[in-house]
Specification:
Elements lengths: L2 E10 L2 E10 L10 E7 L6 E4 L1 H9 L3 E2 L1 H10 L1 H9 L5 H6 L3 H4 L3 H22 L9
Parallel strand pairs: 1-5
Antiparallel strand pairs: 1-2, 2-3, 3-4
Length: 139
C-alpha cells in the first residue's frame, strides 16, 4: 500500500480550506483517509497553517510521500529540515521538536506588505497636504 500525505479540499464555494490527510494513494482525495494531521486555510489573512509535527514526521519515516503542495507547506514550517536531520541520524524526534522554528525569525510577508502600503498611503497624504490648493472662483 502506497501512502501519501496530501490536501483534501473542504469548505464552501469560493471559501476553501484544506485538511492535511494521510491516505492510501489509490483512494479519492476527499475519500477515506488514515489520519488527519493538520489543516491549511489560505483564505484567512495571513493564511492559517497548523500541522501535528510528530505525526507528520512519523508518517514520513514509515514511507509516506508528501504531495508537492504539502512538501512546500512542510518546508515553510521547517518539518522537512527536521525530517532530513532525523533521517540522516543527526537528531531524534524529541530534539527536532525542540528546535527553534526558522519561520519565527522571518518577518511575515503579509506584515511587510501591510507596512509598505501604509508608508505609501502616508506619502500620498503628505504630498496631497503639501500641494497648494487652488481655490475655485466664487460664482
Amino acid at each position: 500500500m502506497s501512502v501519501v500525505i496530501r490536501l483534501s479540499r473542504q469548505g464552501h464555494r469560493h471559501r476553501p480550506f484544506f485538511r492535511i490527510a494521510v491516505a492510501d494513494q489509490r483512494k479519492a482525495a476527499t475519500g477515506k483517509f488514515l489520519q488527519h494531521i493538520g489543516y491549511y486555510d489560505p483564505a484567512s489573512n495571513p493564511p492559517t497553517l497548523k500541522i501535528d509535527e510528530p505525526s507528520a514526521i512519523k508518517w514520513m519515516q514509515v514511507g509516506a510521500q508528501p504531495s508537492d503542495t504539502v512538501r512546500s507547506l512542510f518546508h515553510h514550517q521547517g518539518i522537512m529540515d527536521k525530517f532530513a536531520k532525523i533521517k540522516g541520524g543527526k537528531a531524534t524526534i524529541e530534539a527536532a521538536s525542540k528546535a527553534i522554528n526558522w519561520k519565527a525569525k522571518k518577518p511575515k510577508l503579509h506584515k511587510v506588505k501591510k507596512e509598505a502600503l501604509a508608508k505609501e498611503k502616508e506619502a500620498a497624504a503628505k504630498a496631497a497636504a503639501a500641494a497648494p490648493v487652488a481655490e475655485a472662483p466664487a460664482a
